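The passage that follows is intended for readers who have already worked through the single-chain material. We present the inputs for a multi-component assembly, then the predicted structure in tokenized form, and finally a short commentary. You are encouraged to pause after the input and sketch how you expect the pieces to fit together before reading on.
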Amino acid sequence: MTPQTTGLQAPPHALARSRELTEPALRAAIGRLHPLPRRMAAFSLGWCEADGTPSTSPGGKGVRQALAVLAAEAVGAPGATAVPAAVAVELLHTFSLVHDDIMDGDERRRHRDSVWKAFGTGPAVLTGDALFALAVQVLAGSGSEHTGAAVRKLAGTLGDLVHGQADDLLFETRPWTGPDAVTLGEYEAMAARKTGALLGAATALGPVLAGAPPRLVDALSEAGLHLGLAFQAVDDLLGIWGDPLTTGKPVHSDLRRRKKTLPVLAAMVLDPAAARRLELLLGSDAPPGAAEAGRAAAVVEDAGGRTFTLEEARRHATAARAALSGVPLAEPAAAELVALSEYLLDRQV
Amino acid sequence: MTPQTTGLQAPPHALARSRELTEPALRAAIGRLHPLPRRMAAFSLGWCEADGTPSTSPGGKGVRQALAVLAAEAVGAPGATAVPAAVAVELLHTFSLVHDDIMDGDERRRHRDSVWKAFGTGPAVLTGDALFALAVQVLAGSGSEHTGAAVRKLAGTLGDLVHGQADDLLFETRPWTGPDAVTLGEYEAMAARKTGALLGAATALGPVLAGAPPRLVDALSEAGLHLGLAFQAVDDLLGIWGDPLTTGKPVHSDLRRRKKTLPVLAAMVLDPAAARRLELLLGSDAPPGAAEAGRAAAVVEDAGGRTFTLEEARRHATAARAALSGVPLAEPAAAELVALSEYLLDRQV
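Having made your guess, compare it with the prediction:
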């Protein structure tokens, strides 16, 4: 797992295979929605444009569905067992994007308008609610005798998402330096809930539905959690140094938005002089311009924030792999899980 | 059940009894939330003011929790069986108020600012999400062997709420008259989902957790649905003719907001001449002033819309009672259910 690779790796076959398995169920679930949220949900999934015409842009890659399917296969169950889990996780993920974009005021998502920007805030609230309701409905209706445990896991995951998002919103109001500054530990706890929990649910829910032993479920859940933390670290790197053509966001985007991401927090902990400079550049009442953001990026890099974050990504990727290799899992699914994890982290940074 | 009574009926003892049973669990659940949504959730439940000081205004009466407790007792189970159901229904109800107020742009709720008005739209979205997550968590963690069925019912109820809210939002965009006008059948289908489903869940979930026979669950669910429809009809009457001191809303509030409620829709169906006058009064680009709204109220009343709606409330109240009396239920809970229903509908109209 080498997060700083070229981004040119071919998509694992597992993605296409799992899409074939799960997409009919996902489309059937969306098809059951009221026409108003259905169209907005289809837009948020990348299936259509805001006016309802078929989409010209790619949607999500379906990594979470594939994780669910492969995790079920890794505990010896047919991939089909995981379909309700895969659909529920994708719906929960999409729900969180739609509502988070409202809360964060993000106008763009995957090179298009965000749902609230395209349809209005009220309709976007409704769309998120519809997606979440559907996630619970799909999982609760799975027919598996282990549905109760799966729904508990899903509800806990939503609780984590809300908790992490609340932390993230509060971080914005806290000072850059001093005793009330956000610590690296607080940041990791936030990221574990906001990003890790959902990938942990993706890898755990299929095995839960399959009735896998708790030891295997826990190992797969832990692998997903670490994968999520590695993914978030890469995301934080992309938020500062990502190519605008790839990310769809302006250069130094997260710095211009004064987001308290891992590279910045790490730089401030590693180098007190950098902390003072960053506070001057980012801590004023007005958002920094392009020049200030560029200077802040250089300060973060010189202080070691970029390297630290890359090391964090590697550390969590290694921990994910270790969690998988610590328990007996079925092949080829286990190897495919590792390959899919590498693919997920293989983004241009 | 006489919806047009004085509103001076004493609260049934069942309300206090069920509050004693369910409130500790509700407070414990809210206490598990992240501090940010926890405070907003406490505000939305009427427990504190926006600044966190203890509330000076009364919160909800806890009718839904009492319905859950009494319904469980009516199928012969201890009221305590229904506590997770009562808490989940109250959380789901509060979630829907918080998000609906965002979508409807309603600035006031129970004589106070709505959550989005007091805390901002993003935080209100988060609060609703937190409440809904908690509802599923509480019910999924009930420990009952019938949890799976209960969660399916809750998820279906949320699906209904979203569907009903989507209908309600779409109704606003439809014309007052002509082939695309909202029909009375469409209105009832919307109200059944938006209001009936939640009361149907309140009366069904306790019995579901108790493992009651489907025939009893269905009868109680149907009673709750009709009670909800009766409640909505009374609410529609109050939205036009309610005392502003009681409702906390301006006189003729729903007409000034040009809401397509049952009295108006009924008047337009019953009297084509009234329909044309109402379209002139309510259908222009600008919202009607106090004088136009007053004239519209008189037109609705003269056309029979008020009487029709009162009859609808009575019809559904009777149907609720019939559903209860059609199956063998345990006393005194069954009688208390009827008394509580009467209390719920006994509002000044």
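Commentary: Chain B touches chain A at residues 33-37, 99, 102-105, 121-123, 125-126, 128-130, 132-134, 136-137, 140-141, 147-148, 151-152, 154-156, 158-159, 161-163, 165-167, 169-170 (CB under 8 Å). DSSP finds 16 helices and two strands in chain B. How closely did your sketch match?
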